[in-house]
Specification:
Helix content: 40-55%
Largest sheet: 3 strands, antiparallel
Radius of gyration: 18 Å
Strand order of the largest sheet: 1-6-2
Shape: elongated
Length: 154
């Protein structure tokens, strides 16, 4: 998901594999399909940074486009399966907040703010995570991924 040139990267991967070797990957679906990403961005607000090419965890979220990249890179039999599973950020609210603050996008956004605004943003993040907390499961948000499989051409 973090290749600056996915077509070249997957062509290199295909070249390194034996003929008919299997590629399996799990990638996020589009940003707008992932509750966790929308919730974090909403909490961060205007400080959210635009996604940069090569640093976008959702860069392979368009299943059709990703299948095309893989086929062009030398893979056949591309299968894309919807994975709809919750993402667990921890059983403890403080641990979940620390984890989310460690995301590159979140830490960059917080660093761009004044101390006061950063503190208010962290509080919004805490409130967002608390809204998704339960004693039984911890902090859990909805997520969508693609399970993508393919075989290198002969």
């Amino acid at each position: 998901m973090f290749f600056s040139d996915p077509a070249a990267a997957f062509a290199n991967i295909a070249a390194a594999l034996r003929p008919e070797a299997r590629l399996v990957m799990l990638v996020w679906q589009r940003h707008e399909d992932n509750e966790w990403a929308r919730a974090i961005d909403a909490a961060v607000g205007n400080a959210a940074q635009p996604r940069q090419p090569g640093a976008d965890p959702f860069s392979l979220g368009d299943a059709e486009a990703t299948a095309g990249i893989l086929e062009s890179a030398g893979f056949d039999g591309v299968r894309v399966e919807d994975v709809h599973e919750p993402v667990l950020y921890g059983h403890d609210l403080d641990a979940a907040l620390a984890f989310v603050r460690g995301f590159q996008d979140t830490s960059t956004a917080l660093a761009s703010l004044s101390d006061g605004e950063a503190a208010r943003t962290v509080e919004r993040l805490r409130e967002t995570l608390a809204a998704h907390y339960s004693d039984e499961r911890g902090v859990v948000l909805d997520s969508r991924s693609w399970l993508i499989t393919a075989r290198r051409r002969r």
